[in-house]
Write a structure and sequence with these properties.
Layout (H helix, E strand, L loop, with lengths): L7 H14 L4 E6 L1 H7 L8 E5 L6 H12 L3 E3 L12 H4 L1 E6 L2 E5 L2 H11 L2 H12 L5 H11 L11 H20 L1
Parallel strand pairs: 1-5, 2-3
Antiparallel strand pairs: 1-2, 4-5
């Protein structure tokens, strides 16, 4: 059965439900569309992508319940599944809420932006522009963090480092241009 799109109220309901049902402390990082709808640069998202680190016990049963109760699509997906983990990503992840034993965070916006730049879909580019417009990312720091992970790209054979580098340069220029205009 196809799931409905999710808005901010559905994402908040998901967080409450996961927090209420968790049996041990843990952290859940919100990624992509979940961050976009909570902050407000998008109204809806198809998937609520999350990363569990450390994983709260009982969370998978809670996710199954949430999918049924809220008619929501929850995926385990984070930037570090697609590109090398950025140094310091956890400290740059901003706190969203605490429900029960679980702390919820927006996964580091620099990592989210770089993963979106690498994937390069139209919606990804719009999300990166929104992150820049909202000053969730700064172009110079984005470029620095790309350089920090560039040597690790050899572990990701599907990524062409040269074209990824070009897309990062284009994105940083676009963010600067839009912030000045």
């Amino acid at each position: 059965m196809p799931r409905e799109v999710s808005d901010a109220s559905k994402v908040r309901a998901l967080m409450r439900l996961l927090g209420e049902q968790a049996k041990s402390p843990g952290r859940i990082y919100l990624v992509g569309g979940a961050s976009a709808v909570l902050i407000g640069w998008r109204a809806t998202t198809v998937d609520v992508d999350i990363k569990l680190a450390p994983e709260p016990s009982g969370v998978f049963a809670a996710i199954a319940d949430a999918k049924a109760q809220l008619n929501i699509n929850v995926e385990l997906a984070a930037p570090d599944d697609f590109i090398p983990a950025l140094p310091g990503w956890e400290t740059r992840s901003s706190h969203v809420a605490r429900h029960g034993l679980v702390e919820f965070f927006h996964y580091d916006f620099y990592a989210q932006a770089l993963a979106k730049i690498e994937r390069g879909h139209d919606l990804d580019w719009r999300d990166v522009e929104a992150m820049g417009r909202l000053r969730l990312i700064v172009p110079e720091r984005l470029a620095e963090l790309f350089l920090a992970i560039e040597p690790g790209l050899e572990r990701y054979p599907a990524i062409d480092p040269a074209s990824f580098r070009r897309r990062v340069r284009a994105a940083t220029k676009a963010i600067v241009r839009k912030s000045q205009g």
